[in-house]
Amino acid sequence: MRRLTSPRWLAWLFAAAELAGCFTEPINRQPSVQLTPPGTSIMRGKDASFTVVATDPDGDPLMVSWGVVAGDCPIDVQSWQGDRRPLGAGERQVVVESSATLAPFCVCVFAVDSHNATDANCLPQTPVNRAPDIQLRVVEPNTLPRFPLFSRVRVSAAGTVDPDAAPGEMILYSWNLDRPPGSSAALEGCGTATDLERCFTGDARGTYTVTLEARDGMGEKSRAMVPVEIAEDRLPCIRETTPALTSLIRDDSPDAPRSLSVTKVDDDGNPYPASSSGRIQFTWFAGLEGGPMSYLGNDFESFTPVGYQLGDVVRVRVEIRDRNVKTIDDILTRCQMSGDALCESPPGSGCFLSATWTVRFNL
Fold this sequence. Notes:
Elements: H1 7-21, E1 32-36, E2 48-55, E3 62-70, E4 85-87, E5 93-96, E6 105-113, E7 118-125, E8 137-140, E9 146-147, E10 152-156, E11 172-178, E12 197-201, E13 206-215, E14 221-230, E15 237-242, E16 249-252, E17 260-266, E18 281-288, E19 294-298, E20 302-303, E21 313-321, H2 325-338, E22 342-344, E23 352-361
Parallel strand pairs: 9-14, 16-23
Antiparallel strand pairs: 1-2, 2-5, 3-4, 3-6, 6-7, 8-10, 10-12, 11-13, 13-14, 15-17, 17-20, 18-19, 18-21, 21-23, 22-23
């Protein structure tokens, strides 16, 4: 048998013994840390919760921390410039607060074992910016579905919100009005210092469409429309008078005659009392019974029969007109030919185009 006593073999044995001593301690393996985003989209300006799972294959204790920065994630995690917040033992959730989710951000989690071996995981996130939620409706008048001609229409967007606006961030509003043929209506303020209301006067029959566009601070836009239907021009109506329309014969004194007055009318959205616009006109006539009636004038709501004597019987007639002049004149002519004290059109509507009183000066 060969004896291994040569110097060369002895040197080899000593080297092998030293090399075997290098593997007496186990090799430390790197920990692993995983970061999982929320199961749903992250909304701008809302808290976002992430799940952290950190493990060590060797069972070493771990120190876990996390942080968030605005903008993109670093290419090299070693260049991380954000803060590091410790994650307690057993904690699995990290919450990125709403103040950090107003713009794109990066969230990172870090794990270090007891041998200083490390791992990190970073996730870039872009929160979803929702457009403003517009609440658009007609608040005046309230005679839906169609509004009378010359109605003053008030449209409001009160209740419009930006669901993920930053503090102090404003919504910019842009209003528009589409008009039917023949209309010169324009949107204007309603007498209040707010961009949430606009008014217009429907001056022609047809459909008006009010459009509102709302844009938030991130440039996200939404649009809403509301149609407004303006009805055809109805005939004007005398609704109430003094004395009442049911008391067209009255006794009076020539020394102290009482006024005859129109106290209430119904003529779409036209102004009342009568104005210089000429949309509503009252025309008055008076004369002795059995004789012709003389024209007295326009644009006043009451008339006092003066200059008559005891025993006189006087007929006083008031007529109402708007821009439907020809139609009204045709109806009034028919009523006068029939001798009607009240000219109602259409019959049974309670809409009177004229009223004629008989005043007997016998007191």
